[in-house]
Amino acid sequence: MSRDYTKFFPSKQMGQNFLIDREIVQSICDILPNFALYDAILEIGPGKGVITRHLVSLNIPLFCIELDKRLFADLKIKYQACKNLTLINDDVLMVDFVKLFQPYKKIIIVANIPYNITSPIILKCLNEVKIDAMYLMVQKEVARKLNYHKTTNRNAFVNIVNYYYDVKIFFDISPKSFSPQPEVYSSFIGLKRKRFEPFNWQFFKFMKPFFLSKRKKLLNNIHPFIAKEALVKWLEQNNIDLNIRAENLDYDIFMKMFHDLGPK
Ligand code: SAH
Question: Atom 18 of ligand 1 has which residue's CA nearest to it?
Fold first, then answer.
């Protein structure tokens, strides 16, 4: 049997699960904030353009980064008349955001992102202070994890995201709303920046070792930069139970610890 080369074969590796449910697209559009607050929009992984179609009509500079050459070529033809759209055929993780956003002040991201690179995408966006809001479709499990006061899976990533952004979970989406159907449920979430200082990688690195063995007490996770005695003293001075686990210590306390005990 010969293969039909005119047919599009979705790539699992590129996390291609295309949104096909018009009602969900409409619900996403209804939730998005007032675009007048922003001077540029970024869409990551536009795919076949179901969300792009709405974003491009807003007449604000729109950047779409799509890794797949085939989808990029189709979008290029479809949107050739749209002057406000810049299509980029690249891996979002390789794009220089500082250069790309140089003429702009306040950027919003709207995207149904490839789930396999959710954390690297969010971390990269945290690093760019001009990115004021991110409206993302993520795996439901990731959305639950990021929900700070309810999560049962707090780690350094969850702390750092919540330190810089207010996280809101809007609604869940069934696998049936996509083609091909993913194995997991999805959620649409909003991250709104609440701190405008540059992203502190040292702070992130400082928190990570405390979560290496999650079930252990904070004090029993060996930390490469802090002597145990110094940590005991710090906990006592701050009236914190010596048996506390890292997942029960919130990001503001971690920040205080970082200021007091972190690299100078
Ligand atoms: N937004 C579309 C497609 C979602 S699927 C929709 O909702 O239907 C994820 C999309 O991200 C695919 O188009 C895939 O090709 C693209 N993609 C995967 N990895 C990428 C990367 N590293 N950089 C940019 N785009 C990527």
Answer: 14
